[in-house]
Each structure stands twice: as structure tokens, then as C-alpha cells.
Specification:
The complex is a heterotrimer of chains A (426), B (59) and C (346). With 426 residues, chain A is an alpha/beta fold. Chain A contains twelve helices and 23 strands. Chain A folds into two domains: 3-181 and 379-403, no CATH class; 187-377, no CATH class. Chain A has helices spanning 30-37, 113-116, 126-129, 151-171, 235-239, 249-252, 256-260, 263-273, 291-308, 322-337, 355-358, 392-399, and strands at residues 3-9, 12-15, 20-22, 25-28, 43-51, 57-60, 62-66, 69-71, 92-98, 100-105, 121-122, 137-145, 180-184, 199-208, 231-233, 278-287, 313-317, 341-346, 369-371, 378-381, 386-389, 402-405, 421-425. Chain A has a six-stranded mixed beta sheet with strand order 15-16-14-17-18-19. A four-stranded mixed beta sheet of chain A has the order 8-9-1-13. In chain A, strand 17 (313-317), helix 10 (322-337) and strand 18 (341-346) form a beta-alpha-beta unit. In chain A, helix 9 (291-308) packs across helix 10. Chain A is globular, with a radius of gyration of 21 Å. Chain B is mainly α. A two-stranded parallel ribbon of chain B has the order 1-2. Chain C folds into two domains: 2-167, 3-Layer(aba) Sandwich (Rossmann fold), CATH 3.40.50.2300; 222-344, no CATH class. Helices cover 34% and strands 19% of the residues of chain C. In chain C, the strands form three sheets. A six-stranded mixed beta sheet of chain C has the order 2-3-1-4-5-6, sandwiched between helices. Chain C has a four-stranded mixed beta sheet with strand order 10-12-8-13, with helices on one face. Chain C starts with a strand and ends with a strand. The chains are: A alpha/beta (426), B mainly alpha (59), C alpha/beta (346). Chains A and C meet through helix 8, strand 17, strand 18, helix 11 and strand 19 of A and strand 7, helix 8 and helix 11 of C. Strand 1 of chain B pairs parallel with strand 13 of chain C, so a sheet runs across the interface.
């Protein structure tokens, strides 16, 4: 399986007569895009705002951030199982508007100011400097659903609007020559010429059953993960739209953008291409609802890595809080017992910032632990001139000068591995 | 004694008498069952818990 | 720099174990390792006072020792309190830790001490103090004092203290964020490669270890026992009268179930941010199995159901918090004469 990423750098987004990519400037026909998005009868209106790096602007609550990408003909479809039929993603050429993002705001009127603090797009200042998102050119979407649309359906409409806008924008690049191209794959345990290298797999949790997913919550090829067991995947599938974050932004610290630019997968590919290791594949896993469920999920994930991918090393990430944490550790322990070396990525579960409170597992063999953020870092951010908010109460909150936790600013703390935060023990 | 569905956590902190609950979001119930069956399930779970309290061995 | 120094009877030159009962003596100027302190601080620094005390006296009369030292220090104008180095001397370390902790907390005078890693004072005081790692052997005295001086200077100047490795103190077990060049994904892959290659790697977090809990005795006859339910699933009466936090709870509540044969969802709510509460809110018996227990009480399977349940929420809670609440609950349960408790955990 080969995926070619055809990258078109974008340094400016503006509204214009037609949607086109001219050099590194993307013009968007605002009314055409709006009309496309409003084909969804659930939406009453959709706001479109261009936001630039360094701008005195704050937006929220962020529902998702998506890199504009569109498939070239002949490959897999865009966001299969969600925007189109379910087909294996990660095949063929994908045009990428590098440096651009579609940021989707959750506009449900019921979202409180407090809940909105879970994920804010911050474009200037100290906090923004620590988020990769502040360096991007954003089209910020504020899709508002009709009052009679139930909450989960409003979120579904929000998700669809974001994905459609991202594809629409990147389609402008399909006729242009990319500035760089990168071909990923083929990889796998049977690829020749990799003898003697360590065989490394990635296990990424994509959902936690602590919360029941909504019926229309598209997480894996459109599936809401109910009843799902861990599955073997090609990492290209993750990069090319097979996996989407949950509706519940409080759980994950995950955005579509970092599935498309997955920090763990990207680094495994880099080392694979440099001949340092043999990247054999990825497993999409779920954390369990109860003990039987957990045992089943952890065992299947571990066995896929050992017997499906023949790995001798594996890296694991979690999705959510304490239960996912414990499941990730249990999977790592099973792997260690099968002689697969592991490293796990944790967020800090402690409130008192003490080592003794921080971890939810105690397995001596799970001793390689990377930290992706906690509750320590905060910034006092100034009042801003421009606010793009999901509802009036959120607008009032966003406008103020206030203390924001690192985890409140999208992209600073991230369980997909984009975090530049690490823990030091003092 | 403890009824929990988060067994690894109970084990980690050293709980001695543990009975497995029926899921994190409904430790002592199951909304998918008809009311009477759910009550029976709960009764069995509580009975197990009481048995554990009377026993010296680990569940 | 004006320094006040604490040493035990041995380093104070009084004598060895046979003098361990000696009470506190307050001497002017530097004694024993205090001379080295003075010399290494330089710049006309002086040890104003040296407290010398026998190790047994210090531990047996710890409160008195602390009171006497604090009283003397209050008017002393000292910039820094130094205790030890204590190496692996356990009683000495306990006294040094207790004194540094009190001086720091009550007089806001910075304090520094030094101990070996196995000194029992380390476990007790590492979180609140800067304890220089002295190793076990007093032959390292001058290196240890050098590090105490460097750390002491920074503490007095109010400068930021670096990492344990850089400054030579025993890790306090406090987690702090730092921003680094590599993202967490890159660090994760690098770490597993070091591990699988058998190279040394530095984990960014440590595992937590828990002391084993002795098995409590069984209930002799449950049909005569008074049974109570405790839950950490955050079930509270509507309106959450005790304001139990949905995360990192510091409070717990006791709620009556008198005359109830089951729980009605409309009377309760869930204050717990870690699980989907809809099922328990619809029927709280799914968390606090009152219906089943009440039935069993009527049938004589249990002696009596205590007419209250205890509730808090167990999510992302520091151990210091949960230990305290656990002790408080256990105390309450004892006072109520309850024989057996069922804890339901989400």
C-alpha cells in the first residue's frame, strides 16, 4: 500500500471570486462553500472566518481542527465511511494544503463557558507560541444547527461541515503541481530487505468506552466503535482519513489534524525510511467498559502486534483519562510478557503534581514512560480584539483576560504525541 | 469489600476483597435487561459481595 | 550571610551514642561542620548559632526541640537554616527534617539539609525540603557541604532551583512541566528504540508503588451484621448539598436511605466527571444497590442495613486527598458500629 502526500504550502487564505490556489495563496469562493455546507438541512447558518498566525484572535470551543486534504482520482475516497463509501484509506495521491487548517467551532447553545475552556484556538501570545496550530492559516467554521436538531446530530452536522470544507478547499490543489511529494509505504512484516532491524508497531487507542458513543459518531471508517475489537491497520489509513476523534473533546486531546499528521506514525516512518527500524504496522484499539471487555481488548491488541505484525517493539498511546491509561498499561504488560519491548505515553492524572499520585498503574515491566502534558503550565492571556465563539456565553468568556491552562489551548497538550511538554521530576 | 469494574486499579491499590461489577457506567446494574432480570443480577452481585465479606480467601 | 546550624551530639563534638540523650545546647558561632559552612559561604558569612542536640533527645522530645529552636531563631535575623549533613544517621535525619520543615513553614527562613538516600528523614521530608544527597559516608563531607552551600545561596537569593541532577538534591517527587524540542511522539519512539536495543533510557515518569494492605478479618455471620454502602461513583442528592467536586474531590457526604426500598433517579444526581452518568441517574440502585440490600435485610440475609450511605467521587484525585478521606470515612464507619462495608466503584 502506497500513499503519496502531494504538498502545496499555503501562506494565505482569502475570500475571492473563485476557489483556487494561486502560488501559496488560497482563494475561497465564500458563497459557494457556504452553499455546499448548507446542503445539510440540519444547519441553519455557517460562519466562515479567516484567521492568521499572530492575529489578536481567540476562537472556541474547538470541536476539531482538520488539515485540508483532497484525494486525487484513482485512489481511496476522501474520509471513507463518512463522506463517501467505506473503502480502505491510504492508497494513491492525497493533495495537502500544508500550513492551512479548517477549525470547527461547536456552536451548540448548551455549551457552557466552562466546558468551552477545554479547547480554545489561541493565535497570539505566550500560550499560542506552544501550540503548532497558532502557526497555521485557519478557516474557522461556525456551523449553527436548527433548534430542533438533537445534540448528537448537531455534532454530526458540525463534523460533516468541517470535513466537507477541508476537502473542498484542498480540491483547489488537485490541478496544481505540488511543491513537495512524499510516498509512504509499502510497509509490513513481510516487506523484504529489512532483516536484522527491530520490528516496531504502533498501538493507538482511538476511543474509550467510558462514554457510550453516539449512533452517528464517526470514529473508524464511519463506525462509532460499538462492539469493535482492536483492528490491524496500515499506518497510511490513519494519515488518510480512516480515523476521526470522538465528539467528546474532553476525553482525548486529539484532533483530526494530528491523525493526518500523526506524530508517532510520522516519526516511525522517518526512522523506517532512514533504515533505523522496520515499521511493521499499526493497531487501532479501544479502552474497555468493564473488566471482561478490557481483558478482551488488551489481549486482542497485544496478539495482533505479536502474531499479526511479528513486532519486537511497540509504542502505545491512549485516548482519554484513567481507564484508558490502565488499559494501555495492561496491553503493554501483555506485550512485555510476550517479549515485545514497549514504551507508553501518559498524561498526568494527578492534581497535586506529585509523582506518587501521577500514575494509574504499577507494572515494573512498563517502565518506559513518556509524558504528554498535565496541569502545571498555565498562562495569563490578555483580552483579545477578535473573538469567534460558539455561543454568547462562550463569547463573553473568550473575550476576557484570564488564566488558561496549557490543556485549554488546542495543540499544547495532545495525546496523539504533538505535545512538546514533558515532565521533569523535581 | 469492593464492587468495581476497574479491577486493575483495585488490584494496584491493594484492595483485598473484590467482586467484579457489571461495567463502569452501571456497576450494579444493566440497563439492557428487563427490570426484573436487572434486579436479579443486582441481587446476585450483592450476594457475592456478602459472601466475600464472610470469606477469608480472595475473590 | 547569617546562618544558623543544627548538628547532633556526634558532629557537635560531645560524644557518640553514649551522649545521645543530651538535651539541646545553644552555642555561639560555628561548631564542627559549621566551620566548613562558613568557609565555603565566604564573603564574611558567619554561623551565628549552632544548636547541638543528642539524637535520642531530639526524637523523644521533638516538639520541645522545635519550640526551643524556633524561639531562638525568631529574633536571630538569620538568613538561612542549615541542618546536618546527616548521612545515614536516622534519628539525626528525622530531627534535621523536622526542624527544617518547621523553620521554613513558620519563620519563612529558607532551610537546607543533607541525608543519604536511605535515611528515614528522606521519605518524611523530601517533598517539602531541599535535601542534598549526601550518600552514606561522612568522608564526602566537603563535597556535600559544597552542594549545600550552593543550594543555600540560591534559596536565600530566591533564585530558581534547577533539577535534582543539576543541583544535587534528592528528588522531591514533584512533577513540573518543561517544554522541549522533540514532541512526545518522537520521544516515545526514541525511548522504545533505546529499550529494545538494550541501551539506557530515562523514563519521564516513575511507577507508583503501594504498600500491601493486610487482609481484614472476615465477618463471622453476615446475617447478624450491620452493613453499609460507600460509593466513589459520585451519587449525591439533587443539588449536591455538600458540594462534592466531580473531580479531585476533597469532600464526602453521608446521605439517608431511611425508609427507602430503592433509589429514585429524580432525587439524585451524579457529581463525577469520569464516566457516563446516564444509567445511574436513571436508576441509582445501579450504583448503590439499595433495592437488593433492603430485600436481603427483610429476608434476614443481612442483620441490618445502615440507614445512610457515604458518597464521594473518585476521579483524578491525589493520594494525599484520598488517604485523608478514606481515614475519615473509616473513623465514621467505626463510630456508627458498622460491621461490613460494600464499596462500589465506577
Amino acid at each position: 500500500m502506497r500513499l503519496t502526500l502531494a504538498r502545496h504550502p499555503v501562506t494565505e487564505i482569502k475570500f475571492g471570486d473563485e476557489t483556487s490556489l494561486d502560488g501559496t495563496a488560497l482563494s475561497i469562493n465564500e458563497s459557494e462553500l457556504r452553499a455546499l455546507l448548507l446542503e445539510d438541512q440540519r444547519l441553519e447558518s455557517v460562519g466562515l472566518d479567516v484567521v492568521r498566525p499572530g492575529e489578536n484572535c481567540r476562537a472556541g470551543p474547538v470541536f476539531d481542527i482538520i488539515e485540508p486534504r483532497a484525494k486525487a482520482d484513482g485512489g481511496s475516497p476522501d474520509f471513507p465511511g463518512v463522506l463517501g463509501p467505506s473503502a480502505i484509506a491510504g492508497i494513491g495521491t492525497t493533495h495537502v494544503l500544508e500550513g492551512a487548517a479548517v477549525t470547527v467551532v461547536d456552536c451548540r447553545p448548551t455549551v457552557t463557558a466552562r466546558a468551552a475552556k477545554r479547547s480554545i484556538l489561541e493565535m497570539s501570545g505566550e500560550g499560542a507560541a506552544r501550540s503548532p496550530y497558532s502557526a497555521l492559516q485557519h478557516l474557522v467554521l461556525t456551523p449553527r444547527s436548527r433548534a430542533d436538531v438533537p445534540s448528537h446530530s448537531a455534532l454530526n452536522a458540525t463534523r460533516m461541515a468541517g470535513l466537507k470544507a477541508a476537502v473542498y478547499m484542498a480540491q483547489a490543489a488537485r490541478t496544481r503541481q505540488p511543491i513537495t511529494t512524499e510516498t509512504l509505504g509499502p510497509i509490513g512484516p513481510t516487506e523484504p530487505g529489512r532483516e536484522g532491524l527491530h520490528r516496531v508497531a504502533y498501538i493507538g487507542q482511538i476511543y474509550s468506552r467510558q462514554r457510550s458513543p453516539e449512533i452517528d459518531e464517526h470514529i473508524f471508517y464511519g463506525l462509532n466503535t460499538t462492539g469493535m475489537l482492536p483492528v490491524l491497520t496500515n499506518p497510511n489509513e490513519w494519515l488518510d482519513g480512516a480515523v476521526l476523534p470522538s465528539y467528546d473533546t474532553s476525553l482525548g486531546g486529539a484532533e483530526t489534524y494530528f491523525y493526518q499528521n500523526h506524530p508517532v506514525i510520522t516519526d516511525l516512518y522517518r526512522r523506517h525510511n532512514e533504515g533505523e527500524l522496520n515499521f511493521v504496522g499499526a493497531v487501532a484499539s479501544i479502552s474497555g467498559l468493564d473488566n471482561e471487555d478490557r481483558d478482551r481488548l488488551c489481549q486482542v491488541a497485544a496478539h495482533l502486534v505479536k502474531w499479526g505484525l511479528n513486532a519486537d517493539a511497540a509504542v502505545l498511546t491512549k485516548h482519554g483519562g484513567g481507564v484508558p491509561h490502565a488499559d494501555m498499561a495492561q496491553t503493554a504488560r501483555l506485550l512485555e510478557r510476550m517479549e515485545v519491548s514497549t514504551a507508553v505515553m501518559v498524561s498526568d492524572m494527578s492534581r497535586d503534581r506529585r509523582v506518587e499520585s501521577a500514575l494509574l498503574f504499577n507494572f515494573p515491566e512498563v517502565n518506559a514512560i513518556v509524558y504528554c502534558g498535565g496541569g502545571d503550565t498555565k498562562w495569563t492571556v490578555p483580552a483579545v480584539e477578535r473573538i469567534i465563539a460558539g455561543n454568547p456565553q462562550v463569547e463573553e468568556m473568550l473575550a476576557q483576560s484570564q488564566e488558561l491552562m496549557a490543556s485549554s489551548i488546542a495543540g499544547v497538550v495532545n495525546q496523539q504525541g504533538a505535545s512538546h511538554v514533558r515532565a521533569m521530576t523535581y | 469489600m469492593q464492587i468495581t469494574s476497574a479491577l486493575p486499579i483495585a488490584k494496584m491499590v491493594g484492595s483485598n476483597r473484590v467482586v467484579l461489577g457489571n461495567g463502569i457506567v452501571h456497576v450494579a446494574g444493566d440497563p439492557n435487561l428487563p427490570v426484573n432480570e436487572e434486579k436479579d443480577l443486582r441481587r446476585r452481585l450483592v450476594q457475592k459481595a456478602l459472601d466475600a465479606l464472610e470469606s477469608e480467601a480472595k475473590e | 550571610m547569617k546562618i544558623v546550624h543544627y548538628v547532633n551530639q556526634f558532629f557537635g563534638g560531645i560524644g557518640a551514642e553514649e551522649e545521645a540523650g543530651r538535651p539541646l545546647e545553644i552555642r555561639e558561632g560555628a561548631v564542627g561542620p559549621g566551620r566548613l559552612l562558613e568557609q565555603l559561604f565566604g564573603d564574611g558569612s558567619q554561623v551565628l548559632t549552632t544548636f547541638v542536640c543528642g539524637d535520642n533527645y531530639a526524637v523523644e522530645q521533638q516538639d520541645q526541640l522545635i519550640t526551643d529552636v524556633l524561639n531562638h531563631l525568631r529574633a536571630s535575623g538569620a538568613d538561612l537554616f542549615v541542618a546536618g549533613p546527616c548521612f545515614e544517621a536516622g534519628r539525626y535525619g528525622m530531627a534535621a527534617g523536622a526542624l527544617c520543615s518547621a523553620v521554613q513553614a513558620e519563620l519563612h527562613i529558607p532551610a537546607v539539609t543533607a541525608m543519604g538516600g536511605e535515611n528515614p528523614g528522606v521519605d518524611l521530608y523530601r517533598e517539602e525540603l531541599f535535601i542534598v544527597d549526601s550518600g552514606a559516608s561522612a568522608s564526602a563531607m566537603s563535597q556535600v557541604v559544597t552542594r549545600m552551600v550552593a543550594l543555600g545561596k540560591k534559596l536565600v537569593a530566591g533564585e530558581e532551583i534547577g533539577t535534582p541532577a543539576d543541583e544535587g538534591y534528592i528528588p522531591r517527587g514533584l512533577i513540573r512541566d518543561a517544554f522541549v524540542e522533540q514532541n512526545a511522539g518522537q520521544r516515545l519512539v526514541a525511548m522504545v528504540m533505546d529499550k529494545v536495543n538494550g541501551d539506557p533510557f530515562e523514563s519521564e515518569m516513575m511507577s507508583t508503588s503501594f504498600e500491601p494492605i493486610p487482609m481484614p478479618a472476615a465477618v463471622a455471620d453476615i446475617s447478624k451484621a450491620r452493613v453499609m454502602v460507600i460509593t466513589d461513583g459520585g451519587l449525591v442528592p439533587s443539588g449536591n448539598p455538600d458540594g462534592i467536586e466531580g473531580m479531585a474531590a476533597t469532600r464526602w457526604g453521608t446521605y439517608s436511605i431511611k425508609d427507602k426500598d430503592g433509589l429514585d433517579g429524580k432525587d439524585y444526581e451524579i457529581s463525577h466527571g469520569g464516566y457516563d452518568p446516564r444509567f445511574v441517574e436513571a436508576d441509582p440502585d445501579r450504583l448503590v444497590p439499595l433495592d437488593a440490600l433492603r430485600q436481603m435485610e427483610k429476608e434476614g440475609i443481612i442483620g441490618e442495613l445502615h440507614n445512610e450511605f457515604i458518597s464521594t467521587s473518585g476521579l483524578a484525585n491525589p493520594l494525599s486527598n484520598t488517604r485523608r478521606m478514606g481515614k475519615e470515612m473509616a473513623q465514621r464507619v467505626k463510630e456508627l458500629g458498622v460491621d461490613a462495608v460494600i464499596v462500589t466503584s465506577t
